[in-house]
Design goal:
With about 525 residues, this protein is mainly beta. Helix content is about 10%, strand content about 45%. A hairpin with a 5-residue loop joins strand 9 (about 260-270) and strand 10 (about 275-285).
Length: about 525
């Protein structure tokens, strides 16, 4: 008799016992205790069978213990397909011999409009386009311990040629079908709370995603090749990984034939205290070409190689309606013979007020800092590099700022009039840490112009307001749309040829099946 049949038998016996006692007892504590016990047994069974048989365990199911983004509507990142076991629209098949097959998919369309960019030289033109992403995945369980996932992804821009080699492209995509995920997974060997993956897999969403994120917002998203182990003893969540990254989805390929990036790390999260999470992390990278990734620097020397370590701590908790969080990271190593020594930190404070009838309101204040380099000609690299972050959420939807050489202040408000609908208003203020360093955006940089460094407030780059709405339709369709305006500051007026405000708008529809 399997676990499910045992539960059904226990439930039937329990209901029969409840019917046999007097009516007064049925309404009393004995029946309540029995029902509570049955509920507890069902939860335990779901935990055992869900880990062993649910093919969604091959991915990262909702409600997992991973220290990823919150599941509330204002979460930094949307949950990835596939959906949870049992959701309509997911195709699961039980095969002979205990085998199980599950098919899932996702289609996403996003239209965007952007004003003149701040990339130099100025383009004097606006852009608008529709991007499309399609994913088809297959999860195959050989038994309760072994599983395989294969997921194909196609990303393209409407109207562009489809060879992936010529013509304008999305920022870092290849408009072609490619392998997004393809790995084998070993789950709970010898009943240990351990999961091991080998192959190509999506980048995990670690902590608050300031440093490591799969960037699901981007139509391509990030995935890498290697090995990843997750250990989950009671009260802990521990991940160790080692990967080789060569994809244009995560990095901009350089001209050097040795364009590998080796990336490994350890993330430890403690959840033993209720409503408190304390994390420690250590990441190591080896870049075979200093032109890769977000590394933009004058420290190149004769050896285009960078080796760095990034370590730090993060805390997240709440006390009633108040929420708080903080992160600090230090980065050191060697680049082209120069010393890497940089750091960054962030603090957040939030307040949630239920309004009744399922409505609630949330406000959040945040300050984030990332060091800049006061002298790009000396032997020290002091500009912080945020690794593989989710800057789009933290530093404005227009992606005008990376977490580098930056002071950023954010004020955010969210209102949920309905469970499936959220209204958002974010305001950001941006200042450079070092005016002798660059303004680092996502995909571009801008340096100080003649006389700008002597302007008393030229470190103020500007402010951005993001207004957007999120809602779900019939559980399977998510809609996200909004408008953003950037108000240029003194630094923009004193540098470069682009000196004006900028607008951006988008509408994104995602279908999970």
């Amino acid at each position: 008799m399997n676990h499910r049949n045992s539960l059904i038998l226990c439930s039937a016996l329990g209901l029969g016992l409840a019917a046999a006692v007097p009516a007064r007892a049925q309404e009393g504590s004995e029946v309540d205790a029995l029902r509570a016990r049955l509920a507890e047994l069902e939860k335990r069974l779901e935990a055992v069978e869900g880990t062993a048989k649910d093919p969604s365990a091959v991915g990262a199911p909702e409600g997992s213990a991973a220290p990823e983004a919150s599941t509330e509507p204002a979460a930094p990142a949307e949950k990835e397909a596939p959906a949870k076991k049992g959701k309509k629209g997911t195709f699961s098949f039980d095969l002979p011999g205990g085998l199980r097959l599950r098919l899932w998919g996702q289609a996403r369309w996003r239209g965007e409009y952007r004003g003149d960019t701040y990339v130099q030289p100025k383009t004097n033109s606006t852009t608008d386009f529709v991007g499309q992403r399609t994913r088809l995945g297959l999860d195959f369980d050989l038994n309760k311990h072994l599983g395989v996932r294969v997921a194909l992804q196609d990303v393209r821009r409407w109207g562009d040629v489809g060879d992936g080699l010529t013509g304008p492209r999305l920022a870092t995509d290849r408009a072609e079908i490619h392998l997004y995920e393809g790995y084998g997974e070993l789950r709970r060997p010898w009943d240990l709370p351990l999961t091991l993956r080998v192959g190509r897999m999506r980048v995990p969403q670690l902590g608050d995603q300031r440093l490591i994120s799969n960037l699901d917002w981007h139509l391509v998203s990030r995935s890498w090749d290697g090995v990843q182990a997750t250990f989950e003893p009671e009260g802990w969540w521990i991940m160790a990984f080692a990967h080789n990254v060569r994809e244009p989805t995560g990095l901009v390929a350089g001209t050097d034939e040795n364009d590998d990036l080796w990336f490994s790390g350890l993330y430890v999260s403690n959840r033993m205290v209720e409503d408190l999470q304390v994390d420690l992390f250590l990441y190591w990278r080896w870049l075979g070409d200093n032109k890769l990734g977000a590394i933009v620097t004058d420290h190149k020397g004769d050896r285009g190689v960078r080796t760095d370590y990034t370590f730090g701590a993060r805390v997240k908790g709440k006390a009633g309606p108040l929420g708080y969080g903080g992160l600090i990271a230090y980065q050191y190593g060697d680049q082209a013979g120069d010393i890497v020594a940089a750091w960054a930190g962030a603090v957040t404070l939030s307040f949630v007020q239920p309004l009744g009838g399922g409505m609630k309101f949330k406000v959040l204040a945040e300050y984030a800092y990332a060091s800049g380099d006061p002298d790009p000609t000396d032997s020290r690299v002091q500009t912080f590099d945020p690794l593989l972050p989710f800057a789009h959420y933290y530093h404005g939807h227009q992606d005008l700022f990376a977490w580098r050489n930056l002071h950023a202040v954010a004020l955010k408000a969210v209102f949920w009039p309905l469970k499936w609908l959220s209204l958002h208003a974010d305001t950001h203020f941006f200042f450079l840490d070092r005016r002798d360093d660059r303004w680092y955006g996502v995909g571009f940089t801008r340096t100080d112009g003649a006389g700008a460094a002597r302007h008393w407030d030229s470190g103020y780059v500007g402010a951005e307001t993001d207004l957007y709405v999120k809602f779900k339709v019939l559980e399977h369709i998510s809609v996200w749309g909004g408008y953003s305006h950037f108000f240029e500051g003194a630094y923009v007026r004193a540098t470069g040829s682009k000196s004006s405000d900028q607008d951006w708008a988008f509408l994104m529809v995602t279908l999970d099946f």
